[in-house]
Amino acid sequence: MNDTTRCVSPSDSPSLSAAEASPTVSRAYQCHHCGKPIFLRNSVCLNCGSAVGYEPFRRTIVTLAPVPGDEGAGWEVEGEPGSRVARCNNLETAAGCNWLIAANEDGSFGGPHLYPGFCLACSLNRTIPDQSLARNQELWRKLELAKRRLVSQLLALALPVETRLERADGLAFDMLENTQAGRIFTGHDAGLITLNIEEADDAARENLRVQMREPYRTLLGHFRHEIGHYYWERLVRDSAWLAGFRALFGDERADYGAALQQHYANGPPGDWQLRFVSGYGAAHPWEDWAETWAHYMHIADTVDTAISFGIDTARVELVTDPFAPADLWQPEHEGAASFLLFINGWVRLTNVLNELARSMGQPDYYPFILPGAAVAKLQFIHELIRAYSLDAAQFDVSGAAPEPDGNWDPPFSDKPSSDGPAEPSAPGAQIEACAPAASLVGQGVVAAGANIAGAGDVTQIDNVAQPANPVHLDDPTHAEDAPPVARQPGNVMQNQDGARQQSASLSDPLGDPLGDPLSGPLGDPTREPQAADAAATRIA
Question: Is the whole-model pTM more than 0.70?
Answer without folding.
Answer: yes
